[in-house]
Each structure stands twice: as structure tokens, then as C-alpha cells.
Amino acid sequence: MKPAEDRQTAEKGQLEGRTWWQHLRHVRKRRFALLALLVVMTTGFIVGGFVRYTEATAALARGGDRLLKADAIVVLTGGANRIQQAVSLLQSGHGQRLLISGVNPGTSRTTLARMTDTDRRLFDCCVDIDVAALDTVGNAQEATRWAKDHGFDELILVTSDYHMERSIVEFERVGGLKSITPVAVRRDDFWQDDSLPTTSGLKVLLTEYVKLMAARLRASLDGADAPIAVAAAAVRQD
């Protein structure tokens, strides 16, 4: 091969090498840009979802529609004043029976009656206690089973405001109910005003939002047995 041809071959190789490297850099830049866009979109989705969840939670305890009667009342333990609110609804005739779900096995009817300042006879006649449920998933399963056993398909659900949305998701996963009316119990120490959470409230909301996203993912993978009509957040009006 002549020197001139050698030189041309070498120059061609160098040019191809530079072109390949430029192409690789271009591909890497595009991938990085797409990855950055995906991160921004995902972050925006999560943050936006959390803001909507916080706003919806704040609106829950303010209520809206007048609370009508249902077949029965279910209260999920784990938050302050939940049981007291549910017992009060039972006393005012908003449901035929009350299920307290997730009670510690060591807690007796007498203790619950004393804690809520309620006549023990009301607990004996109209209150059922579930000690099997260990979490929100179990609450939904046990409460739905209880409702079916008693022929109830319209429930008033009492739980904390921040816990309500995830609870409803779990009830929808189980299926079998016609409607749920949420009655949310507000923790005043979690809110600075009607819609702005305190530092402690923000921590609880963030933790609960992560659990809510996980519950939604499980529900989307499992599929709901049948849609449940969820009434607007209600306020008690005797």
C-alpha cells in the first residue's frame, strides 16, 4: 500500500472513531435528558398527589353533607376519639349496630364502656368487638365479613381524617358493600388551621401517603370485587 493510501486510511479511521464517539455522546445525552425528565415528572406526580391528599384530608373533617342513617357503623381503632365518636353515632340512631375493629384482645367490653362513658347495656345489646384485625387490611376484611353476617351493606365508617382514604381503598379491595359514608375524626394537634398541617401532622401525613400509594398499587394489581359508592364526607347533625 502506498504512503498516501495509508494516510487516507488512517484519517478515515480517525474520522470514523470521532463520529462514533460523537454519536455515543449524543446517545448518552439523550438518555440522561430522558432520565432527568422522568425523575422530574415522577417527583411532580408524587408531590402533586401528596398535596391533593393533604387537601382532601383537611376537607374530610370539615364534613359537608348531612349525615344520614346507615345499616351499621364501623370504627377502626388506633386513633384518639374514634371510638367515642362511633358510640355517639350509635346512641343517636345512625346505625343499628356498631363494630369496633382492631381491639386489643386484653381490652374488655367493660373497659370500653368505661372509656367512652357509656352504659354497659348498650355494649351488650348493640356493639360487636373484633380482635382479629391487626392492620387496615384486616380491618376491612373483618368489617366486611361482619357486615355480610348481619345483612348490612351500607356502612358509616369512622376513623381518623388522615387514615380515611386508605381505609376506603382497602374496603374497595375486599368488595361486597353497597356504600360507605366517611365520618372523619380530626386530630387538632395535627393542624395549624383548616388546611395547613403542623410539623407532627406533616410527618404523619407523609407516612400515611406512602401507605396509601402502596394500597392503591395493591388494589390496581388485585382489582376490586365491585365498586363501592362512597358518600361525600359527612358531618353529624342530630
What does this structure look like?
By secondary structure, the chain is an alpha/beta fold. The protein has one domain: HUPs (Rossmann fold). Helices cover 58% and strands 14% of the residues. The chain is built from seven helices and eight strands. The chain has helices spanning 3-62, 82-91, 109-115, 120-126, 136-150, 161-174, 199-222, and strands at 65-66, 72-76, 97-101, 127-130, 154-160, 179-185, 229-230, 234-235. The chain has a six-stranded parallel beta sheet with strand order 4-3-2-5-6-7, with helices on both faces. A two-stranded parallel ribbon has the order 1-8. Strand 6 (179-185), helix 7 (199-222) and strand 7 (229-230) form a beta-alpha-beta unit. Helix 1 crosses helix 6 (161-174), helix 5 packs across helix 6 and helix 6 runs parallel beside helix 7. The longest helix is centred in the N-terminal third of the chain and has 60 residues, at 3-62. The N and C termini lie far apart (103 Å). The mean pLDDT is 84. Keywords: Membrane, Transmembrane, Transmembrane helix. The chain crosses the membrane at residues 32-51. Residues 71-210 form the DUF218 domain.
Tell me the β content. 5-15%
Which structural category do the helix and sheet elements fall into?
alpha/beta
* Helix run count: 7
| CATH fold category name | Rossmann fold
Q: Nearest-angstrom radius of gyration? A: 28 Å
Terminal CA distance: 103 Å
Give the CA-based shape.
elongated
* Poorly predicted regions: none
